[in-house]
Amino acid sequence: MSLETPVVPAKPPVRALSGLRPFLRPYRLQIGLALLFLVLAAATTLAFPLALRQLIDGGLAAWGPGASTPDAAGLRGAQLLSLRDHFLALFAVAAALGVFSAARFYMVSWLGERVTTDLRQAVYQHVIRLSPAFFETTRTGEVLSRLTTDTTLVQSVVGSSLSMGLRNGVMALGALGMLVWTHPAVMLQVLLVLVLLVVPAMVFGRRVRRLSRASQDRVADTSAIAGEILNAIPVVQAYTAERHETARFAQASAQSFATAVRRSRARALLVAFIIIATSAALLWGLYQGTQAVLAGQMSPGELGQTVVYVIILAGASAVLGEIYGELLRAAGATERLMELLDSPSPVRSDESLPSPPPAAQPQPLPITFDQVVFHYPSRPQVPALDGFTLHIAAGETVALVGASGAGKSTVFQLLQRFYDTQEGQIAIGGQALDSISLHHLRSRMALVPQDPVIFSGSAADNIRYGSPQASDEQVLAAAHAAHAHDFISALPEGYATFLGERGVRLSGGQRQRIVIARAILRNAPVLLLDEATSALDAHSERMVQAALAAAMHRRTTLVIAHRLATVQQADRIVVLDQGRIVEQGTHDSLIAAGGSYARLAALQFHEPQTVSQGDPDMSH
Fold this sequence. Notes:
By secondary structure, this protein is of the alpha/beta class. The chain is 60% helix and 10% strand. The two termini are 32 Å apart.
């Protein structure tokens, strides 16, 4: 499945953001508290103009120079007392606003962090369970961009913008309501104009939304390029491709920048339209208010109250214009995240299926491939396995040999159920693979891949990856069995030595022995060896072969190898060609048969063989 941007009509921002509802639902109490503090903060803000009006009309105008009183000193004292009371009331409003705003800020910030963490974990948990078929058409950098950039945008909205939008929306509605209440005839005209302005703003916002989604996709492109190249730095530098890769990244960055500029331009025009149109409508209402004061229809305090409400309404409208742009960006980010969360894995598993308790000494299991037909999703016309049938007895060691592309690695991937077959059936221990949960199925196997994978951690951590609950003594025993103990002990901090990203501080042979120790520690009933000794020198290979021989004892073992010296002692050797079994038997019987295996042995061991000229070369 590809994560390219689908060409579909843009959803309204609120509808797109509705994908966050499952992540918000567990925190209803915190959301309720945040809304309460938000409303209280908005209410105290709206109360400020009322207190200001009382100050002007009750504290200043009522005691102005024209006021008549027999006692000038008493007038002065009463005026000061009145002013003090009004200022205290204003301070009380400001203090309440500060407390409620701080509480609102804390609650929404907590919600933003919590929801973003939950969302990021949910996406990662889903992605890490997707089968390799998903990643045949999806770049890792694209997924990482969604995990980082998109979740950061969602955090910005949930933890800040959405709260500010609600707060300013309440304030705008409250200020507008007060203005309509005090001057209904004039402000109803203004309200009608504001409603008419919403329609073009929404239409223009759809373009901003599409550009926001495109901008995030271009950022993901640059992340994908950077991730791919940084993981292949030695190859890039070996081929002196630094200039080419720099130019490729610069081109992707330029496209990202150009898209971001178009988005910013459209968003700036949207904000300008909202602010100018809203301010024009409000100034018209304010002008009408000044005319009412001159006509004696309104007191100075009422005019001051009107001015502050107009300022609140204009400021809230401007903030809402900014926040609407943020919501458009977050809507695009949410869509991308929900799209990733909704991506179905090509391999389905019922994890509720019962799993037997792990045995202290696992028993070897029989494995059956019955008329298996399989095509990779990226190559649907070419069968990787075609009518493949193989029965492996419990405890048997079977080696798979053949030319590159013959289907050997496909056997391993199907057995681990990274893919499902199109035809036929695979069973392990007498159970069809689709009747076993993926976790239980794969826990029965230990893998030594051709390309050893070392994680960023210590040597002990990498070995213990095969069995996280293993004791230090078990880790040491596995390292000894894999002949890795000596070089690990010689590291600066021994088993606690940090091995670097992808094990860059180790040689290829050392990395391979770490991986073999990991597989030995896993103690699984099925052992899968994919060119397990390919990175070892002759001396190390002999040591590790002995270790693997011990590991294969009482295990059902499948071995992939091009170097036939590693498979001569196998119970059975199976020769594959273009997804089919063409020969099988012991090393000696296949040599005697003079077929494909004999020709390959002749090339590797320089043994004289009588072979026909038309057979394919298997010496990859």
